[in-house]
Design a protein that fits this description.
Shape: globular
Order of helices and strands: EEHHHHHEEHEHEHEHHEHEHHHEHHE
Strand order of the largest sheet: 4-5-6-7-8-9
Distance between the termini: 13 Å
Strand content: 5-15%
CATH class of the largest domain: Alpha Beta
CATH superfamily of the largest domain: Aldolase class I
CATH topology of the largest domain: TIM Barrel
Number of domains: 2
CATH architecture of the largest domain: Alpha-Beta Barrel
Radius of gyration: 20 Å
Bound molecules: iron/sulfur cluster
Number of strands: 11
Structural class: alpha/beta
Length: about 400
């Protein structure tokens, strides 16, 4: 994790005389507010909730937002305050990362895992799950499909394998970098600094390692045999080695409180991550948390909005889990709450169904080639566009 940069005290946002959310120097703010009707609703919301607007400004401007301020936002169910929150996050998104929605093609190359995370269907105790590991040829073919779809980032994801072959993964990275010229994101769990360096030297650009919860005690309860200290060590190593580093959390974990979630937002701010992924917890029947309720969609959207507000220019996905919760695709709501990335799945059949972190994942039976046109329709309906560029780090070096 990088050292925290200083923040200007001036948030750069103002409540206009008419009462609307407006970014200075960016025109009349109507783009952010999506037309006259919505603008009028925002004007009314701002007039009737001046203190909430001040609270959002304070969170945005803070070097480290106060837990109490974050809890207030996470606690609200007031429709006007929610409208202000999402409009604010949407404006920060527009100002710092633009209207484009970046695509990252995921290839889940192994569902073998040594760990027993209580919320995850891939945990090693799940004997009902058929295990697989793609060959180098299969991984490269899937990466080729990502490239053929015009997407310039491939995410190579797996469970945390004891027997992961570091040399073979290095060979895959080198082949992708030399023949496809794509950005490579790794998501293969906690590894040694030497392995991280080995793959970085081969050309890996980015690494995603979610903290899941920033609270050490809750982390310990949900991750038998793992340690929060080692996880944060990994995140520090990755940043120091020059990876564009991503983290994220789960919302609605049993035992998790709003205070924990506020701590997660502080963790994101302190880590100054390049990517932040917020997902609802979805219980898997073959886990110890099978009977626990799923995470709340609205709370997940509020966390997405806060992640955007405190990070400003991190890449924030509208996660597949948000699109899978309750069987409805709610990713457009995440895109309207600060998100700017979608991650279509290019894992080949039948393995895609077997990468079952949680049940009823969306699009597991679709042809991957159908994903980009479908996402384009979703994004254009929001008045935005799919951005087929690499979408690299936007943080200052
Ligand atoms: S969350 Fe990751 S490390 Fe934990 S059981 Fe699932 S795949 Fe393994």
């Amino acid at each position: 994790m990088r050292a925290r940069p200083e923040r200007p005290r001036d948030p750069g946002f103002r409540v206009t005389p008419g009462g609307s959310v407006k970014a200075e120097g960016l025109g009349d703010g109507s783009t952010a507010c999506g037309g006259g009707h919505r603008q009028a609703a925002l004007d009314a919301a701002t007039r009737q909730n001046p203190q909430f607007q001040v609270l959002l400004d304070r969170i945005y401007a803070a070097v480290l937002p106060e837990v109490a301020d974050l809890e207030t936002v996470l606690n609200t169910t007031d429709p006007q305050q929610l409208e202000l929150l999402f409009a604010f996050a949407d404006e920060v998104r527009r100002r710092f990362v633009g209207d484009g929605v970046l695509l990252r093609g995921i290839v889940e190359f192994s569902n073998i895992c040594r760990n027993t995370c209580w919320y995850c269907g891939l945990h090693r105790g799940n004997r009902a799950l058929p295990r697989y590991r793609l060959t180098k040829t299969q991984i490269l073919a899937a990466a080729g499909n990502v490239h053929a779809a015009g997407i310039k980032t491939v995410v190579l994801q797996s469970g945390e394998e004891d027997n992961l072959d570091a040399d073979e993964l290095r060979a895959v990275i080198e082949e992708i970098k030399s023949s496809l010229e794509m950005a490579v994101t790794l998501c293969v769990g906690e590894r040694s600094r030497a392995e991280y360096r080995f793959w970085r030297e081969a050309g890996a650009d980015r690494y995603l390692l979610k903290i899941e919860t920033s609270d050490p005690e809750l982390y310990r309860r949900l991750h038998p045999g793992m340690s929060w200290e080692n996880r944060t060590r990994c995140l520090r190593d990755l940043a120091e080695l020059g990876y564009q580093t991503g983290s994220g959390n789960l919302v609605g974990l049993p035992g998790q409180t709003l205070r924990h979630l506020a701590g997660d937002i502080q963790f994101f701010r302190q880590g100054d991550f390049d990517m932040i992924s917020v997902s609802p917890f979805i219980p898997h029947p073959q886990t110890p948390l099978a009977e626990a309720p799923a995470g709340d969609l609205l709370l997940t959207l509020k966390m997405t909005a806060l992640a955007r507000i405190v990070s400003r220019n991190a890449h924030v996905p509208a996660t597949t889990a948000i699109g899978s919760l309750h069987g409805r695709d709610e990713r457009p709501r995440a895109l309207a709450a600060g998100a700017n990335v979608i991650m279509p799945n290019f894992t080949p059949a039948p393995y895609r169904q077997q990468y079952e972190i949680y049940p009823n994942k969306r699009c597991v039976s679709d042809d991957a080639r159908a994903c980009p046109p479908c996402i384009e329709r979703m994004v254009e309906a929001l008045g935005r566009r799919v951005d087929y560029s690499r979408g690299d780090r936007m943080k200052m070096e």
